[in-house]
Amino acid sequence: MTKSILFVGVGGQGIILASKILTEGLIKFGYDVKMSEVHGMAQRGGSVTTQVRFGEKVYSPLIGVGEADVLVAFEKVEAARWISYLKEGGSLVVNDYEIYSMPVLIGQEQYPQNTLDELKSKVENLKIFSAAEVAQDLGNIKTQNIVLLGALIKALGLENLDWEGVIKDNLPEKMQEINIKAIKAGMNI
């Protein structure tokens, strides 16, 4: 059976790195995997999505509306923006984190309020936590993407695979120890 994972967030949050580590790990463990990424205006703080599909045989990386088994939102408004892609009964993992768009920063718009309440009313299988706080406690806020990846791995029931080895294979040596801590912390949430 094919599983579909949609990562959503804002440029600079490490979404593509997290999805590449997931993809590399799944391939290493024998799954057929397809991945697609959309950068949008990523370097300007715009929306970024990656789609990862895996299973015995996968023909397309694309996830349609109502087809994602798991939606991983690196920023809470992005969760609300992409919620229609989550299938009924799917799981939503949300980073309780805010990144303000340029219109919000210059006072033209307000950051949406009550986003988490809206998500709670739409999704039964929901995990909300601050990956930023977890990453900060580990000593590097930039590892919140790997904390979220760890939470996703737990949600998928894949935590018994050798993710430490995958991190070592895909990150520079100086970044391995903190990211191994981050993925383990995510799996323990």
TrEMBL record:
Domain of life of the organism encoding this protein: Bacteria
Keywords: Oxidoreductase, Pyruvate
InterPro entries, sorted: IorB_Oxidoreductase, Pyrv/ketoisovalerate_OxRed_cat, Pyrv_flavodox_OxRed_cen
Domain Pyruvate/ketoisovalerate oxidoreductase catalytic: 11-187
Pfam families given in the database record: POR (PF01558)
Single Gene Ontology MF annotation: oxidoreductase activity, acting on the aldehyde or oxo group of donors
SUPFAM superfamilies: Pyruvate-ferredoxin oxidoreductase, PFOR, domain III
Protein name in UniProt: Indolepyruvate ferredoxin oxidoreductase beta subunit
Source organism per UniProt: Caloramator quimbayensis
